[in-house]
Design brief:
Layout: H1 7-26, H2 34-45, H3 59-76, H4 85-110, H5 117-123, H6 129-138, H7 144-168, H8 174-199, H9 203-210, H10 218-233, H11 238-256, H12 260-286, H13 289-294, H14 296-311, H15 313-317, H16 324-334, H17 339-351, H18 356-379
Helix pairs in contact: 1-2, 1-12, 2-12, 3-6, 3-11, 3-12, 4-5, 4-7, 4-14, 5-7, 5-17, 7-11, 7-16, 8-11, 10-11, 14-18, 16-18, 17-18
Protein name: Cation:proton antiporter
Subcellular location: Membrane
Pfam family, one: Na_H_Exchanger
C-alpha cells in the first residue's frame, strides 16, 4: 500500500458513494445497478477525466473494501449446500467452464492476443457473488429452489477461482501459497475452539453477549479486527488476503451461531455503508480508459467469452432440476463477474505478465456483465412462491441463507 490517504480524494469518493444510490432511488426505472454507477463515478473523478483523485490516495480503504466484498460473500455461503445436489452441480458447471476456458485462451494465446494465460483463463470462470447479492436479494431471486442453486453456483464461481489464484498467482511460490491456505485452516480451527471456550467461559461469554448490541459492539469489532489483520499480514500478497477474507466469512458464519442475523446486518451496514462503495469507486478511478478506447473490440470479445465460458455450461448441468427460464437466469448470474477480475488484473499488471490493454478490457467486460446480465435475469421474472416438493427438489427444502 504505497499511497497515503488523501482527504480531498476521500471527499470525492464519499460523494460518489452517496450520489450512486440516490440516482438509483430517484430513477427506479434506470436499469443500472448501483455498482456500475460507483465505477462510472470513479472514472469521472479519476485522473483521466476530471483528475480529482488518484488511486493510491484511497488504496488502504479500498483494500479493506475488497476484503469486505469477499467476507460478506463467504458469510452468505452455507457449506451444507455443497453436500446437496446444488453444490455438486455447481462444482461440475465450474469444472466445465475451466476446461472450456483453457481451450479458448490457448487459441487466443496462439494468436498473440493473450500473454497472461492463467489469469485470463481464471477470469473467464469467475462469478461476482458479492456484487450480485444485493441485486438478487432486492429482486427476490434468492427464494426457494432457484435461490439454492444460484447461491451454490455463485459460491463456487467465487471461491474456486480465488483458491486457484492463491495457488498459482498470489505468492512467489506454491509452497508459500499452501502455507497461507494452511494458516487460514488453522485460524478456522482456532475460531472453532474459541467458540466452545466462550460458550463454556461463564463470565467471558456473558461479557461478549452483553457487548454485542451495546456501544462496545464486541462481535463486530472482532470481525473487523480479523479482516484487517488478514489484509495487513498478507499486504504484500494481495490476493491471499482476498482468499482469507472469503474463508473468514465462511468460518464466521459458523462461529457466531444464533447471533448470525444480528452480526450480518451490522456487517452489511459497515461494509455496504462505506468500505465496499470505496472499493468500487477506487476501481473506477484506477481503470485505464485509454487502453479501452484504443482496443474496444477486446472488451466485446471478453464480454462474449464470459457468457459462453462461464454461463453456457449451466444450460446442460442444471437440466432436469431447473426450468428453461431458471436455467437462463443461472447462465446470466454465473456469467456476471467483476471483483475477482479487478484483483486478477492488478496482480497481472504487478507481475508484468498481463498486457495493459487486456487488463483494462477484462475489467471493462466485467462492468458490462454487471450492467447487462443481472438486469436481464431480473427481467425474466422472479421464482414462484410455491414450495417445491422435496421429492422434486434434489437440493432439499431448506431455504437459502440469504433469502
Amino acid at each position: 500500500m504505497d499511497g497515503l490517504l488523501g482527504v480531498d480524494t476521500l471527499v470525492a469518493v464519499a460523494a460518489v458513494a452517496l450520489v450512486a444510490p440516490l440516482v438509483v432511488g430517484l430513477l427506479p426505472r434506470l436499469p443500472v445497478p448501483q455498482v456500475v454507477l460507483l465505477l462510472a463515478g470513479g472514472m469521472l473523478i479519476g485522473p483521466q477525466v476530471l483528475d480529482l483523485s488518484t488511486p493510491g490516495e484511497v488504496q488502504v480503504l479500498a483494500d479493506v473494501g475488497l476484503g469486505f466484498v469477499f467476507l460478506l460473500a463467504g458469510y452468505e455461503v452455507d457449506l451444507r449446500l455443497f453436500g446437496q445436489d446444488a453444490g455438486r452441480r455447481a462444482v461440475v458447471a465450474w469444472s466445465a467452464s475451466v476446461l472450456i476456458a483453457i481451450g479458448v485462451v490457448a487459441l487466443l494465446s496462439g494468436a498473440g492476443v493473450v500473454r497472461a494465460f492463467v489469469p485470463v483463463a481464471l477470469g473467464l470462470t469467475t462469478t461476482a457473488l458479492g456484487t450480485l447479492l444485493p441485486i438478487l436479494r432486492d429482486n427476490g431471486l434468492l427464494r426457494g429452489r432457484l435461490g439454492r442453486y444460484l447461491l451454490a453456483a455463485g459460491g463456487v464461481g467465487e471461491l474456486f477461482p480465488v483458491l486457484a489464484i492463491a495457488l498459482f498467482l498470489g505468492t512467489q511460490n506454491r509452497f508459500t501459497a499452501l502455507a497461507s491456505l494452511g494458516a487460514v485452516a488453522v485460524l478456522a480451527l482456532l475460531l472453532g475452539l474459541a467458540r466452545r471456550a466462550v460458550r463454556a467461559g461463564g463470565r467471558l461469554a456473558s461479557v461478549i453477549t452483553r457487548g454485542q448490541d451495546e456501544t462496545a459492539q464486541i462481535t463486530l469489532r472482532g470481525t473487523i479486527l480479523l479482516l484487517v489483520v488478514l489484509i495487513a499480514v498478507t499486504d504484500r500478497f494481495h490476493l491471499d488476503a482476498v482468499l482469507g477474507a472469503f474463508l473468514a466469512g465462511v468460518v464466521l458464519r459458523r462461529w457466531v451461531g444464533t447471533s448470525s442475523p444480528a452480526l450480518e446486518s451490522k456487517l452489511d451496514a459497515v461494509g455496504y455503508g462505506f468500505f465496499i462503495p470505496v472499493f468500487f469507486v477506487y476501481s473506477g478511478v484506477a481503470l485505464d480508459l485509454r487502453s479501452i478506447a484504443e482496443a474496444p473490440l477486446r472488451v466485446v470479445l471478453f464480454f462474449v467469452l464470459m457468457l459462453a465460458v462461464r454461463g453456457l455450461p449451466a444450460l446442460v448441468v442444471y437440466r432436469g432440476v431447473l426450468d428453461r427460464r431458471e436455467r437462463a437466469q443461472t447462465v446470466l448470474v454465473t456469467a456476471t463477474a467483476l471483483p475477482v477480475l479487478v484483483a486478477l488484473t492488478e496482480i497481472g499488471l504487478r507481475n508484468g505478465t498481463m498486457l495493459p490493454e487486456n487488463a483494462a478490457a477484462l475489467v471493462g467486460a466485467g462492468v458490462l456483465t454487471v450492467l447487462v446480465f443481472p438486469a436481464v435475469a431480473v427481467a425474466l421474472g422472479r421464482p414462484g412462491r410455491d414450495v417445491v416438493p422435496a421429492a422434486a427438489d434434489p437440493g432439499g427444502s431448506r431455504p437459502p441463507s440469504a433469502g
